[in-house]
Each structure stands twice: as C-alpha cells, then as structure tokens.
TrEMBL record:
Residues 276-296 have a biased composition (Low complexity). Residues 21-252 form the PPM-type phosphatase domain. This is Serine/threonine-protein phosphatase. It comes from Microbacterium pullorum. Residues 258-305 are annotated as: Disordered.
C-alpha cells in the first residue's frame, strides 16, 4: 500500500502569506484489478479524477484529463477559463484514443485551487461527477460539492430519503462526466481563505467506506496531511476497499503581516458562485458536524459495477 508525503509551499498574498501543506495518495483497493483513478497535487491546483468505462477506457479518460490540467498548473495560470479549456482538450484526447470506444468512457473531475488574482486570496472548488470536496473549518466538516448522480437528484427532489439513497440500485449512476463526446462545465464554489482550513478531495472509493464522521475523525486526530491521508486509506481498505481510492488532504495556515492576534484573511464574496460555509452542499452550519451525505454510496461508473 502506498504511503503519502507531505509537501509545503508558502504563497505571498496581499497583506501577508498563506502556507499550504498537502499530501496525496491513490490505491487500487481490494476488488479492482486496475486503478482508473488519477490525481494532481501541484500548487495551485489539487484534483481527483475517477475514471469509468470498460477495459482501459476509464484509465484513459482520467489520465488524459489530469495531463491537461497538469499543464495548466505548471504554468501557474489556473482560472476557471484555463480549466475549461484544458477539459475541452481532454475531451478531444479521449475521443481520439483507440481504447476509449466504450460508450460509458469518462471521468469525474473534482478539486480546489487557490486563486490569488484578486485583492484577497480565495479558494475555488470545481466539480463534475460524484467525487467530492470536503472542508473542515472550526472542527466541523462540510461537503462543498454536490454529487452529479441519479441518487442525489432523487434526494434533492424529495423522492428519496438519505437512508434509502445509501443502498439504492442506481447508486453507481452519475449524470455528468468528462467524456469523449462533449465538453462539460464544472460547478464552481468560491470560499474565503481562513487560517486552519483543511480540504479533503476524494473519489467515491473513500466515501463508500468512510462516513463523513470518519473523515472528520482522522482530520482532527492527525494534523499532518500525510498521516491523515495514510490513515484514511488504511481504514477504507480495511472496511472493504470495494473501489479505487484517491485522497488529497490540503491544509492552509494564514499569516497577516503585522497581525499577532490570530485574525485571518477574508474578502467580500464576489464572482462565480459566492458562498459562505452555510451555503455548502449539505447546508450544514459551521457549528454542526455533517453526517453521511445522501450520495455516500454513489459509484464512479455510468452503470452499476
């Protein structure tokens, strides 16, 4: 089983600096023969892609998508515009590949980047599919992204309860993916940067095996990103490891020049989808702890595994 390493980078921002620490890991799990997940953990962009499709189709889709996004991160020119251009190119790459002939070939794309282009830094999360971004703030866990899945749509429409969703036969059916036929625009959420923020970016191989409470437990018990990632991976494998498992843990420490009282950076909410933590995917207030989200058992394939 792979072990993660913690990486750090300090970024100068107006009025101070933000120090990022992160670790990432991907594992085939116990039941799959091939790991169709791929990930990118390179400042300022942190992405998990969960491929789907027969034979090597999913592996192709996730790998090509990560390759295109890596090129954007290497140029340090990450924005919603450059991300969408990269995804369009990935769609072309997938369509041209001889192994991507299965109608179900595609990949989720989920992650977060630090945007320092404005007066104050902000996080921007992005999502296509049912991989997830969680944010731990003030010792509470919030699911920021909303699953693009049949089960989540049924729950949102009030036709299915969260309890019924956990074992629904359509749990593996997603409604949006990066595939070989057309470009798909991610959902974006913009958030203030707050000292102590911790993100978990993961494929559903993690959320099939760990509840939100379990994820929160490992974040609270292990401040070091590599230790948190390794603990979550081991727990997910021990709990069954039914799918490929990919996890990124990203932590931020904010330092304001000339400020010794612990205050953190903030900015008015503007552009894209502007939210506060109470507007997150599950509506959980900052003082609450989110339980298992409705799409907790959703898979990463357009058809049941």
């Amino acid at each position: 089983m792979p072990e993660a390493t913690t990486h750090t980078r300090t970024v100068e921002v107006p009025g101070g600096e933000v120090t990022l620490s992160w670790a990432a890991v991907t594992d085939v799990g116990r039941r799959r023969e091939v790991n169709q997940d791929a990930l990118l953990a390179r400042y300022p962009l942190f992405i998990v892609a969960d491929g789907m499709g027969g034979h090597i189709g999913g592996e192709i889709a996730s790998a090509r998508t990560i390759e295109r996004l890596t090129a954007v991160a290497e140029k340090d020119a990450v924005s919603t515009k450059t991300i969408e251009k990269a995804l369009s190119r990935a769609v072309e790459d997938i369509g041209k590949h001889p192994g991507a002939t299965d109608e179900g070939t595609g990949t989720t794309v989920t992650g977060v980047f630090l945007d320092t282009s404005g007066d104050e830094p902000t996080w921007v999360t992005l999502n296509i599919g049912d991989s997830r971004v969680y944010l731990m703030r003030d010792e509470s866990l919030m699911q920021i992204t909303v699953d693009h899945s049949v089960v989540q749509e049924l729950v949102s429409a009030g036709r299915l309860s969260p309890e019924e969703a956990e074992n629904h036969p359509y749990g593996n059916v997603i409604t949006r993916a990066v595939g070989p036929s057309e470009s798909v625009t991610p959902d974006y959420v913009r958030l203030d940067v707050v000292d102590g923020d911790r993100f978990v970016i993961c494929s559903d191989g993690l959320t099939k095996e760990l509840t939100d409470y379990g994820i929160l437990h490992f974040l609270l018990e292990r401040p070091d990103p590599a230790e948190a990632v390794d603990a979550m991976l081991h727990a997910a494998v021990e709990n069954g490891g039914r799918d490929n498992i990919s996890i990124i843990v990203l932590t931020a420490a904010v330092s304001i020049a000339g400020d010794d009282d612990g205050d953190t950076a903030a900015r008015p909410q503007t552009s894209e989808t502007a939210v506060t933590p109470t507007d997150a995917a599950d509506g959980t207030a900052p003082g609450d702890t989110a339980g298992s989200a409705p799409g907790d058992t959703a898979g990463s394939s357009p058809a049941a595994d």
